[in-house]
Amino acid sequence: MPARSIPGNAATYPGEAAAQGRLSTRAPFHLEATVRVLQRRPANPVEVWERERYQRVVATGDDLALVEVENHGTIDSPDVRFFVRGGDPSTATIAGIERTLRKVLGLELDPEPLQHVVEAERRLRATALALRGMRPPRFADLFEAFANVIPFQQLSLDAGIAIVGRLVERFGRYLDQGGRRFRAFPTSQAIAEARLDALRRCGLSAVKAESLRHVARAIESGELSERGISSMTTSDALRILDELPGIGPWSASLVLLRGLRRLDVFPPGDVGALRGLSGLMELRPGASLRRTLASFGDRRGYLYFFALGGGLLAKGLIHAAPPSTSARPR
Q1: Is this prediction's pTM over 0.90?
Q2: For residues 130 and 110, what is the distance between their CA atoms, to the nearest angstrom?
């Protein structure tokens, strides 16, 4: 077993890959676009994209592992592989890591229905072709979803990312590898046990700090669980989440969309998503998108990811997919 040391919240490993595996998925698959939409901004300290690979620290019981995902194939012929760096993971640990990656990256989804629905909208088709193979990602667990929604309430993406970064630095464990430090997302237990003033020093308002800690404690007690929410209809889940302190319709919708991949939900009044979508459709400022959202039916939530992806594409943070190498019926 490779030598390692764990001082407090840190784990230090040598740099070799301890295990690897393949992640099967249907074509097309655009790994970069999927990860960029997951991270929202390059400053995200947990979801890392660099050198054409996705990196993330994953908790494996009491240990941490740095996981890297690469596509050794193409968008139209994906050969997605993952590498676990550090430790000596068991077969069960590798299987758990694979499940997490498949969940986060949406590898079980059939991309064709989503691709068809955005290509069918004439004004979105050019962007749809550039983002071809982008999957709607989801956060690794329910607490991560809440912790990636509450800090963003009534703030810009950049301001929200900065607050989450401070939460990660203050309450998350970390792993040192190859001379670099990689951070894991804080657990619900860490936030449930945190003092409110410590949470506020990360940039949260008093209301947001109380809301985040309440959710963390509800998850730790079992009062709130991913399995329980997943078993509910969308309308019932929205109602239950909306009743939580500090969680309104926008937050409840975004938790379902980004935390459970409920694509029949579009977060109401999401200014950034609506502005981005209006820009992609070249609509005049203030024009209503109600009819467009309704036309996408139970896939309207994909428009949230699509608008975010379109903005990142325009900033050069996503490379456009090349023309398809396989003919598909229109």
Answers
A1: yes
A2: 18
Length of the chain: 330
Nearest to 296 by CA among 306, 282, 286, 283: 306
Q: Is 303 helix (H, G, I), strand (E, B) or coil?
A: helix
Cα 129 → chain centroid: 22
Token look-up 């068809």 returns: 116
- Asked if 301 contacts 266 with a C-beta cutoff of 8 angstroms, the reply is yes
Q: Please tell me the distance from the alpha carbon of residue 45 to that of residue 167, in angstroms, as a whole number.
A: 10
Cβ(178)–Cβ(15) below 8 Å: yes
Q: Which two tokens stand for residue 171?
A: 């309450």
284 — pLDDT class (breaks 50, 70, 90): confident
Q: Is the peptide bond before 28 cis (omega within 30 degrees of 0)?
A: yes
User: Distance between CA atoms of 106 and 33, rounded to whole angstroms?
Assistant: 12
| Whole-number Å distance between alpha carbons of 137 and 111 | 12
Residue 249 has pLDDT above 70, yes or no: yes
Which residues face 64 on adjacent strands? 59
Question: What is the identity of the amino acid at 115?
Answer: Q
CA R_g for the chain: 20
pLDDT digits (tens, 9 = 90+) for 103-152: 999 999 999 999 999 999 999 999 999 999 999 999 999 999 999 999 99
Distance CA 262, CA 305 (A): 12
Structure tokens at 254: 């975004």
How many helices and strands in the chain, by DSSP H and E? 16, 8
Task: Give how far the C-alpha of residue 28 lies from the chain's centroid of Cα atoms, to the nearest Å.
Answer: 19
d(CA 21, CA 100) in angstroms, rounded, equals 13
Residue-wise pLDDT for 95-108, tens only, equals 999 999 999 999 99
Residue type at 110 in one-letter notation: D
